[in-house]
Design a protein that fits this description.
By secondary structure, this protein is of the alpha/beta class. It is built from 8 helices and 8 strands. A hairpin with a 3-residue loop joins strand 4 and strand 5.
Length: 264
């Protein structure tokens, strides 16, 4: 038989019908095998897709260091941020939400839960000292406000060190515990060190707040952009789809073999 995999059976029905007719009439199909349709997503998800975001959407929370030492590099940080957004759009992740926390010795929420398509291209710069805890607190507040159709993902970037790294790590640890209790998944937490002045031990401590936490290094703004794009490319959507596709194809083949064996 021919297996026809579809992410939206209602949208591909005409194609399926035409393919089925041609397949049955094909001269090599002497046994007149048919087409088995395998929906790649649950039917209820397809029905609701026009009115609600996908359950696999991400709420991407950028936490960006805008302290005084970042002044000469801020335009490069904004470029990296925009390349991340572009990569997510390229991978058809339009259901994503975007938030941005910018921090020096304090923190401010510059963007709050906007659709990917509405994310601003420019981020203003402030300048000041460096404190991690206010930024972590603001990011966790945004994450807790994530709708249940989405999963939060934090991208934390700094070029320095702070006296409150332990408190920042504790904030993310509490958030991770809450997420794990409700979803059985750990917080997607990416911590990026920029330049040679960052304290890698502190950044590792923050990343370790989640079992899914990762530390990345970047030596310049071009490197930073590459890291941002890599993170955007490897977030869990592809793994989720791969797992779902494998599961559904296996189920369909198993059902077909069982029907032919016990029905014969």
């Amino acid at each position: 038989d021919l297996f026809f995999c579809s992410f939206n059976p209602s949208a591909t029905k005409r194609t399926e019908d035409e393919l089925s007719k041609k397949f049955k009439k094909h001269p090599d199909n002497v046994a007149e095998h048919g087409i088995v349709t395998i929906p790649m997503v649950p039917k209820e998800a397809v029905v609701s897709s026009s009115s609600a975001p996908s359950g696999h959407g991400r709420h991407i929370i950028f936490v960006l260091d805008e302290s005084g030492s970042m002044g000469c590099f801020w335009s490069g940080v904004v470029v990296a941020y925009n390349q991340y957004i572009a990569k997510r759009r390229q991978s058809q992740s339009e259901s994503d939400l975007v938030s941005v926390v910018q921090f020096d010795n304090s923190a401010r929420i510059a963007v709050q839960s906007v659709p990917l398509s509405s994310a601003p291209n420019n981020l203003s710069y402030s300048g000041g000292g460096t404190c991690f805890h206010p930024a972590a607190s603001a990011a966790c507040e945004l994450a807790r406000g994530t709708p249940n159709t989405h999963a939060p993902a934090v991208v934390f970037m700094s070029d320095g060190e702070a006296d409150d790294a332990v408190a920042a790590a504790h904030e993310f640890s509490l958030l991770n515990s809450n997420i794990y209790r409700s979803s059985r998944h750990h917080l997607d937490l990416h911590v990026i060190g920029f330049g040679g002045g960052c304290n890698q031990a502190q950044l590792q401590q923050i990343a370790s707040a989640s079992q899914a936490g990762k530390v990345h290094s970047s030596v310049n703004t071009a490197d930073l952009a590459s890291v941002f794009v890599d993170i955007a490319s490897t977030q869990n959507v592809s793994l989720l789809l791969e797992s779902e596709i494998s599961k559904r194809i296996t189920e369909a083949v198993s059902d077909k073999l069982s029907l032919e064996y016990f029905g014969s």
